[in-house]
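Morning F.,

Quick status update on the modeling queue. The single chain you submitted on Monday has been processed. Sequence for confirmation:
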Amino acid sequence: MANIDPANSSPPVPSTEAAEGKMSFFEHLAELRLRIIRSLMGIAVGAAVGMVVSSRFIHFITAPMLAALADNHLNPSLYVRAPVAAVGLWINVGLAIGVGLAMPYVLYQVWLFIAPGLYRHEQRAVTTFIFFGTLLFLLGVAFAYYIMLPQMLHFLVHFSTDLALQPLIDVDEYFSLILIVMVGIGVIFEMPVVIYILSLFGIVTPRFLLKNFRYAMLIITIAAAIITPTPDATTMLIFMVPMVVLYFVSVLVSYVVFRKREAKKAAEAAA
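Structure tokens below.
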């Protein structure tokens, strides 16, 4: 049997100082407060940039609605109910852009909050965490804008014309609708990142995710019914298919994390 050095026989500890490893509950709350404040500051800086490009972006986000109206042989115009409504829209769009621009920084703050509980090799994944978190959010927004919104808006406008109704689209209500859809789907596309974090802490395993797939399908169906304001099955399926794909991608991510943790434990046991 190999000799064991008592000085090196203790299990590895997270790569933080001893004082950090013994943070009290209130110290954790103070750390969380710091991360939230810095995230809000990042969003504020992003919003300042967003205000500059807000006017151009408004033309971009109204394009799907105007196209849906034109396709149904209607006047491609949106309306405001008050003179100040246009200013409010400009501000809201700027804030939304600010959140999008600040997302990498916000993810970085989230990582700094959870990193002290991880080992050094896990902390080195910060770049990957931020990159894929941002990429998945943008993919979700792009999916909503280019695939889901045109289908959904065309259905809504066509449904109105079938009832002999003339759509009079208020720009504020339209923006609220697409904000919910685009940001909601962007956040939902973060599923693999969330599963990655939960797998690092051993909260979920690939076996657990596969075993509870039927419950995940129920949640996906409910989310599709809530986020998609149209009752047609086509739009719900357009939403559900990538969600199911993302779920199995999350299972794969959890499997990779699980195998690495098991391999590390085996190596430590054999040492």
